[in-house]
Structure prediction request, 139 residues.
Amino acid sequence: MNESEVIRIMRTHLEGRFPKVCSNCQHSYLSLREYLLNTDHVGSAIPYDAELGNWNPLRPIGTATYANCPCGNTMALTSKGMPLPQLWSLLNWARVETKKRGMTPKELLNYLRDEICKQVLSLPPEQWDSNVDDAYTYR
Ligand SMILES: [Zn+2]
Prediction:
């Protein structure tokens, strides 16, 4: 597994979490792209299992990244729903890479989050998800 495969798996998983509804204002984010365009990251992404040194968790706590909806509500995108073998292979890759790069699991996850954001936000219009009209924004 290499970095671009890891990013592809994570991105596919995240894109599968949409549509996503804000529990406060009920706004429905139709795609990861719409979500990234209209929310603000809150703090660092958190690789809970890796931070605990748990690289093969049977009951994973998961990884999470938080963002604020314009209404002020904080929403989370997590690894929830990812099959365990897939999660384990990502964690195993992260265990090796953090050592190789001299990064903490959190630094590595933040780096991957940035790369995914860059990819999603630089997509040409014909590759935007589910025919979402990008002229539509929440604000
Ligand atoms: Zn909201």
User: Anything to note?
Assistant: Residues 3-122 form one domain. The longest strand covers residues 40-47.
